[in-house]
Each structure stands twice: as C-alpha cells, then as structure tokens.
Amino acid sequence: MAATARILDFLRDRRPEGPCLVVDLEVIADNFRAFRHAMPDTRIFYAVKANPAPEILKMLASMGSCFDTASVAEVDMALAAGATPDRISFGNTIKKERDIAAAFARGVKLYAVDCVEEVEKVSRAAPGSQVFCRILTDGVGAEWPLSRKFGCEPSMAVDVLLRAHALGLKAYGISFHVGSQQTRLEAWDSALAEAKAIFDAMQKHGVTLSMVNLGGGFPTKYLKAVPGTGTYANAIHEALTRHFGNAIPETIIEPGRGMVGNAGVIKAEVVLVSKKHANDNNRWVYLDIGKFGGLAETMDEAIRYPIVTAKDGDAKSPCVVAGPTCDSADVLYEKTPYDLPVTLTVGDEVLIEATGAYTTTYASVAFNGFSPLAAYVI
Amino acid sequence: MAATARILDFLRDRRPEGPCLVVDLEVIADNFRAFRHAMPDTRIFYAVKANPAPEILKMLASMGSCFDTASVAEVDMALAAGATPDRISFGNTIKKERDIAAAFARGVKLYAVDCVEEVEKVSRAAPGSQVFCRILTDGVGAEWPLSRKFGCEPSMAVDVLLRAHALGLKAYGISFHVGSQQTRLEAWDSALAEAKAIFDAMQKHGVTLSMVNLGGGFPTKYLKAVPGTGTYANAIHEALTRHFGNAIPETIIEPGRGMVGNAGVIKAEVVLVSKKHANDNNRWVYLDIGKFGGLAETMDEAIRYPIVTAKDGDAKSPCVVAGPTCDSADVLYEKTPYDLPVTLTVGDEVLIEATGAYTTTYASVAFNGFSPLAAYVI
Fold it and tell me: Which has the least CB within 10 A, A20, A151, B16, B184?
C-alpha cells in the first residue's frame, strides 16, 4: 500500500511539477506472482482498463499474463504489448458489431455476452468464437458495488448459451463478478453454486461448458486491512471443489485493482486551506487533484484513499478534502471528513496511496483547463 | 433546445463516426445578444469551463464578451481568442500562487477570493489587483446544486476584503453563485441583500466596494420549461433597485450553461438493448456515450437530457439508460427510468439535446480505451 522506496526516490530526484501518479512495476510483478502462486491452475487475464500503461502491459505480457479488454483500443494495446490474440478476451458485454468484427480480424476468439442480442452480433461478426455468459451476482460486500448493468439472471444464461450453440458459437462457460474490492469470501461460493447449476442445465441439453470466469473483485488495501491473495484462492478452491467435485472446470480470473492498485502513488499539493466563517471548526483542504483529475472513484466517497503527509506526527483534526476545479461536485471527502494534520498548509506535498488503478484514464481531458493526470511507470 | 437545422444538416451530410457533439455558433450568438439586450449595463464574463472550444471563444471575444477563467490554461485560451487581459477574470477561488503569478504576468488583474489565505497569495503574486470575495448562498432551487466548496459566510467577507485593502489590493466587490440551472428567481434577491449588507459594512471601515458579480446559474432548457433571460434580468434588476436604491453597483454575470448549453447536440448510437431475465419488464438501453464519455452531469441523475430518436412516434416504455464502459457506475438514468420507443434497437441513432455545456472537457482521457468526445463547432 505505502509508497515504495523506488517511488519515494523517484519523487525526490525528479521533483515532477504538478500532480502525478508514480507506478512501481516491481510491485505489479509481485502481485502477478502472488496470483499465479495462489492459483496455479487458473489463467490470469489482467483487466487492462485498471491501468493500460504500455510498460505495465508489456511486463505482464512477458510474464505470461492474458488480458481482459473492454474495447478494440484495448485489444490493440494488449497486442502491442506482445500478447498473442489467444491470450485476449473481449470482456465487455456491450460491443458494437463492427468492434467485434475488428477484434475478430485481429484474431480474438473469446467474447463476453449476457443476452441473446449480443450472441447474435458475435455469431455474425466473429463466427465460431468462444462465448461466456455473464451472470448477475448480488455484489454484497463490495466497496465499489456493481449495479445490474452487466450480466443476466442465471435463469436466462441457459437460453443465451443455447442460442450461441445453435448459431455455431462455442458455448464456453460462465462469468460473474462479485463486485470490485470484494472482502466477503462467501461471495464467490454463492456465485459458483449458480455456475454449477448452469453447467448441469446445459449438460441436459447436450452442451458441455468448460470454463468459469471468476472475474475480478480482488481487493487492494486502502485504509482497512483486507484478506490476502492466498486467503481468496483457498476460499475459491474450496468452493470449486464443493460445487464441482472431481470435475473442476477451467478457470480464469480478471484482476485489475488487485494487480495494480497498490503499485501506484499520486503526488499532489495543497493549494488552499481555509474556513468558511471566523469560528468554523471545519477546515477545507483543497488539493491540486480531484474527482475530475483522476480520483473519480471518490464518487459518493466510495474509495477512501490513504493520504500521507510529512506532518503526520502532528495533531490531526477533521477536514473536508476537495479538488481544484470550479465544480462544486469536485469534493472528495465531506460526509465523512478526513483527519489531517492541523499544521498542514498551502504548498505542502501529500501522497495519495494505493492509486495505481482507475486513476489515469478516468481523468478528464481538460476540465477547467487542467491537464490530465501525468503518470510515470518505473 | 432542439437540434437546429444547421446541426441536422451537418450530421446528415458528414455522417461522423462515433459519438460526437455538434455545436451551432448561431445559437450562442443569439444567447449572447439576449443577455446583452436583457442586461445592457452588466458586463458578460463567459464561463470558459462550460465549453472552451476555440471557435466559441473567438466568436464571443469578437462580440465583446469578457471571460471567466478557472486556470492559467483557460486564461491563455481567452487571450488566444482575442480577449485583452482587462476582459479576463481569474474566477477560481482555489489557485496556486505560481498560477496567480502566471496570470498576472499575462496582464490579468481581477481575481476571486473567499478567504484571507487566498488574499495573501494574490497580494504577493498579483500586487495591486482587484479582488472580489465570493460569499456562500444556499443554492435552493438549483438542479446542479452548489456545495459549500466555494465562498465564505457573508460575516467573514468583510474581514477578507479588509485584509485585501490592507495588503494594497483593490477591494472591488462581492460575488455569489445561486447554483447552476437555478430556476427560483428569488435566489438572486436574498444574495443581493447579503451583498448590500457587506457594501455597508465595508463603507463603515472607509472602503467603498463597487461591483457585484451575479455569477451564473442561468438555466438552459432540458426537459422542463425554464424562465427566459428577460425574466431573470427583470428579477435581478428589481432586486438590485430594492437593495441598492439609487447607488446600483457595477455588475457582472458569468453565464456558462446559459450561453452554450442549448447550442449543442450529441449524436450517439444504441449499442445494445437487452433484458436481465426472460420476463423482465425493464429494458436496458446501452449507448456509445456515458458518464465517462462526456455525460458526467448525469451523476446522481442530476441533469436529465432530452433524448430524441427517429422512432419517437412509436409507443414508449421505461428503460434504464447506460453507457458503454465496463464500469457499473456508468449508468445514466436508472432511479428514474427514461421513456424510449419500444421499437428502439441496436444501431439506431439518438440525439441527446442541450449538451453544449459541460460535456467535451468532462470526458475522460481514455477510460476503457474509448476516445474522448469528438466535437464539431459549426
């Protein structure tokens, strides 16, 4: 979680101007090895959307990672990083038919679907490909909860996969996503029970499914302690055995936040510390990065990043923390104020930890004229 | 509100690929003339952040507009468009001292402040400049409400402006912002009463304020009818007379949404229409633009844009409307579903109206690999 010595050295030596993310590749390599060690029989598809920096993709490709992509642009990034098309999944359930065709032309043959309409698009634009059907899970226990946007009720998945089979596609398996930053280990168990029921129902129709995509959701440590990769792997392995017995299917995971979240630190600066009236007990601390500059996941105060300052030994008091834009929605923490040193002042540097995932590409193009978040991968 | 013939012609003739915003400069010119006609004694500072397209800035500069800027980058855009520095306000209350110095070096001499700390920065980096103090208003009646992020309690404004005076700055006036998309005419009245009280308090200390910055908040028409510019102007003029009598101060307005909101239309495409289970009554309609592609103001379903299709004569039923990214938060309208034609299908084009403000620059750099919102100013 904390900034590594390499990151701190980089910031001290390079003194980059303005807010920036610094990502330590060694942490990502450690995370990849931890996943591979904990789940040796599971293929790892890194969720490119979490952080598509070319250096990250290239290193993961060289380590043997596969890639979960959300768009043709991400397919191209994975290919440019050295991944072969058989290591790429087009995991977005919402795809234009011409984008499916473009991915197919590049050799991609694994697609996510969650309805008959999407199956029909894949059958036309990527004939003969493998499809997996995403099912809905309840998302309880996740810090960044998933809505019902992706997936269908398990009852519908059989129809979707039978339609795929009928249209000449390979009905390959089931996927689910227990919710990002999922800390409740039982979440995987109930989803795997649903998956097994779909495997059985398909078998009755003479179609054998062979893969379960366990999705992502593996948490990164923000302020609260979270279970380690091994703990997750054990819980998942037990649930697989419980439901599938001796016929454990091929499995896939799609870590994004769990792969890169703890590898990055954002360096930012205090622009203003002020009060709203003379006797105000609440300080407002304004940083040079906010909701539109890369910290979009503070939406509804969902993700609470650790903020570290050089004055953390001093007394602390609660602050509202806000970004630098002229947008009143650009407030990071207000409902639950953030304890920061009473001595914090204009010009002080702060480190926002565990910001390796879902920051750079979330940044707005130029809102209020501010540049997107700069990033350094070291 | 609706797409103009020029916009429809452009889309028909050019058939741009992918989602895009088309802005009609003639509508903006009409809006500018309407503001100038309704408030001939008020200087108009266009809020650059609403839409900083160079064509828009250049036209408004040539029509005599002034510019409210949020950053040095926006100052440079206004200068590049032909505005002289005396027509530029650095209206962000949260500024790095080195950014104040950069604006001052370019000739900007009008700055917003809301606390003593910011006054001290301006006095060091832009000595002798004019400052106005932003005060808090309650924001009731605004669709996109303002938090307490900007401004201080009126009771503190006198201290802030006296400090400015003591440090050799010109204590120039008061600003407030009644909340974006404000439809309650009385909002201006109560804010002007506060402003007058501060003018009087300053006078007792021997300092004469001369300007009231009425802010923005002038609404654009989305789905609901809103009062016209003339109605606002009358309400404001009456309130000014009521509170200031014969000594009406110099006034400024900062329209952003009110200047460009109704001048733009986004062309988008239906990527998928699906249900979550076999007997689902809710359709999910997925577009190729969402919360991270330019429609950030659908956050908490705050702004409800008109969505127009070629099938609007057909029967309609409620839909959840969502964007194309693999982010479950990328849902536009769900709590209050949106009535769309039952015949709407994959590949259909939709027009999202009144999207000229707060769209292009809000778009994320490349979330999920999707390009930022393309824009054409015609």
Answer: B16
